[in-house]
Amino acid sequence: MELTSDKQYIIMQSDFDGKNMKPFLKNEDNKCFCQDKLLDSTSILHFDTTNIDKPLIYWTSKDRLIAADIYGCGCNLILSAGNQIKFNNLIIDKTNIYLYSVVEELIYILNKEYALLENKGDAFKYVQKIYLPFYGTQLTLDKTLQPYPPTICLTPNMKDYHVEKVLITANSIVVSLPEPVPNDGCEKYNLATTIYTISVSYLTCLDNSLNKLEEFKERTYKRTYKIQNLAPFTEYTLKLAVSNFYVDKLSMGLQYDTGVKLTTISGKLNAPEDVMVRVLTPTVAIVYWTPPKKLNCVAVNYIVNWIQLANNTETQEATVSEHVDNPERTLDGKFFKIIRSLLPGQKYYIFVSVYPTNNIQHFYKFTTDSLTKIVYMEPNNLIFSWVSTDSMNISLISSVNLMIHTGFGYTLEYKNHVMREWQIVNITKVNNNKITFYIKNLLPRTLYKFRLILKYRKHINESVLPDKKEFTIGTLGKEMKAL
Question: What InterPro entries has UniProt attached to this entry (predicted)?
Answer without folding.
Answer: ECM_Regulatory_Proteins (IPR050991), FN3_dom (IPR003961), FN3_sf (IPR036116), Ig-like_fold (IPR013783)
